[in-house]
């Protein structure tokens, strides 16, 4: 066996495992060939990918910098300290834990730090935009804790703060969760803080989707209001797949113990180093411009989709995502999702608030602009994106607006994205291109 390279080595992989090498290349081509509108996805930089493919992946480092279970941690310690310092600086947080393997792992640690089994937990209901880890029955959060869901207002389709207050007074939850996975509006953290203080609850903001927009100062930060903020690092923050917890000093010890040793053992040091890279990228003026463009693009896309009869829930968006009701086009979200996928437009079906249709075939779709914006698409491109979505959703239907096949729309999509590939393909020396 030859000496392994220190970093990603594309030609070696092609020789050693052509099947997997082929899959990696096919995935790159898939990303480059379509419109990636799944709101939780983004394209990480070559620098982030390089660190993910590095020898840091090998090190066992249970514990925290300066206090590890194993020897040989001096370099991974330096990486973790950088990640923590950069996150503290970027978000103005007192304390940061960068070890959670994912958003769900970060959330598990928050429950572990602050709640006991069966405690009531107040969170946005799943069909109104909440996340699986906010009390869904099929998730540990719903199995081990008592979910008390709040809703959006039927008319405004925005969070009903009066209901949040009422439920908080009635159920006296240990934790109030503020955060969502398919809710397009800013949340009023000040009101949540007031309600939490009134009943002496922990205010936890799950900013998994929006933390990149916070980093780029495109939306207000939850950090000054919350006891604890969890986030993923791979959505709008555009880093490696993983999670992160930010908290007030008084909760630091409880959070750190809840991550290790309570819910995780060895941290992924390559991912933590890649988080450091992403956090440095997110602190740049370029990233600030990016975050603002993401929101601008989402607003433009929302307006353009509305023009095609896809009503944006709550009338629009303040963030990177839009949830639209597609029922006026004579279809449902599942059908729209499948048709769009056949045209290489990747988006997901989504329930809308008070959805008359069942979860498997809900009334809505969800789209996000984080990935498209990374590729360099701007405001003016969003009407084309909306045209393509509308064409795919209605193709071949009675009363259709556009009489073209899904294959023809797929061709138009590939033409549209051709000069803005997610990842460069020329002169490929490594998986990063
Ligand atoms: C995506 C998401 C998570 C989970 O993140 P994973 O990394 O997939 O575990 C948690 N909370 C919210 C609000 C999310 O949107």
UniProtKB/TrEMBL annotation:
Residues 13-389 form the Serine hydroxymethyltransferase-like domain. Its cofactor is pyridoxal 5'-phosphate. One of its GO terms (molecular function) is pyridoxal phosphate binding. (6S)-5,6,7,8-tetrahydrofolate binds at residues 126, 130-132, 250. It is an enzyme of class 2 (transferase). Its EC number is 2.1.2.1. InterPro entries: PyrdxlP-dep_Trfase, PyrdxlP-dep_Trfase_major, PyrdxlP-dep_Trfase_small, Ser_HO-MeTrfase, Ser_HO-MeTrfase-like, Ser_HO-MeTrfase_PLP_BS, SHMT-like_dom. The modification N6-(pyridoxal phosphate)lysine is found at residue 235. Pathway: Amino-acid biosynthesis; glycine biosynthesis; glycine from L-serine: step 1/1; One-carbon metabolism; tetrahydrofolate interconversion. Homodimer. Catalyzes the reversible interconversion of serine and glycine with tetrahydrofolate (THF) serving as the one-carbon carrier. This reaction serves as the major source of one-carbon groups required for the biosynthesis of purines, thymidylate, methionine, and other important biomolecules. Also exhibits THF-independent aldolase activity toward beta-hydroxyamino acids, producing glycine and aldehydes, via a retro-aldol mechanism. Thus, is able to catalyze the cleavage of L-allo-threonine. This is Serine hydroxymethyltransferase.
């Amino acid at each position: 066996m030859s000496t392994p390279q220190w970093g990603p080595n594309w030609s070696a992989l092609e020789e050693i495992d052509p099947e997997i090498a082929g899959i990696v290349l096919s995935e790159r081509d898939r990303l480059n060939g379509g419109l990636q509108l799944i709101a939780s996805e983004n394209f990480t930089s070559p620098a982030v990918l390089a660190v993910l493919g590095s020898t840091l992946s090998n090190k066992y480092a249970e514990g925290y910098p300066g206090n590890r279970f194993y020897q040989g941690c001096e370099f991974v310690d330096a990486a973790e300290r950088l990640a923590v310092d950069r996150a503290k600086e970027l978000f103005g947080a007192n304390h940061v834990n960068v070890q959670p393997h994912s958003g769900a792992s970060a959330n598990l640690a928050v429950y572990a730090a602050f709640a006991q089994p069966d405690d009531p937990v107040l969170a946005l209901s799943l069909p109104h935009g909440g996340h699986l880890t906010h009390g869904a029955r099929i998730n540990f959060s719903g199995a081990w804790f008592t979910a008390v869901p709040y809703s959006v207002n039927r008319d405004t389709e925005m969070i009903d703060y009066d209901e949040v207050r009422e439920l908080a007074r009635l159920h006296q939850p240990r934790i109030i969760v503020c955060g969502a996975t398919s809710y397009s509006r800013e949340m009023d953290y000040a009101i949540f803080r007031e309600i939490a203080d009134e009943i002496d609850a922990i205010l936890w903001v799950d900013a998994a989707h929006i933390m990149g927009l916070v980093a780029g100062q495109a939306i207000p930060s939850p950090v000054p209001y919350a006891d604890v903020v969890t986030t993923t690092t791979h959505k709008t923050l555009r880093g490696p797949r993983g999670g992160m917890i930010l908290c007030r000093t008084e909760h630091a010890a409880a959070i750190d113990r809840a991550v290790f040793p309570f819910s995780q053992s060895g941290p992924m040091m390559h991912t933590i180093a890649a988080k450091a890279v992403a956090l440095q990228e997110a602190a740049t003026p370029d990233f600030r411009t990016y975050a603002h463009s993401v929101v601008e693009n989402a607003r433009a896309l929302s307006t353009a989709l509305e023009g095609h009869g896809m009503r944006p829930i709550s009338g629009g968006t303040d963030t990177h995502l839009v949830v639209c009701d597609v029922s006026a086009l004579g279809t449902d979200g599942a059908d729209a999702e499948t048709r769009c996928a056949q045209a290489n437009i990747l988006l997901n079906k989504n329930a809308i608030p008070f959805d008359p249709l069942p979860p498997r075939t809900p009334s809505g779709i969800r789209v996000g602009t984080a990935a498209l914006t990374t590729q360099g698409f701007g405001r003016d491109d969003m009407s084309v994106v909306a045209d393509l979505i509308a064409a795919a959703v209605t193709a071949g239907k009675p009363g259709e607006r556009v009489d073209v096949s899904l294959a023809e729309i797929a061709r138009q999509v590939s033409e549209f994205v051709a000069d803005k590939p997610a990842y460069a393909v020329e002169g490929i020396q490594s998986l990063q291109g």
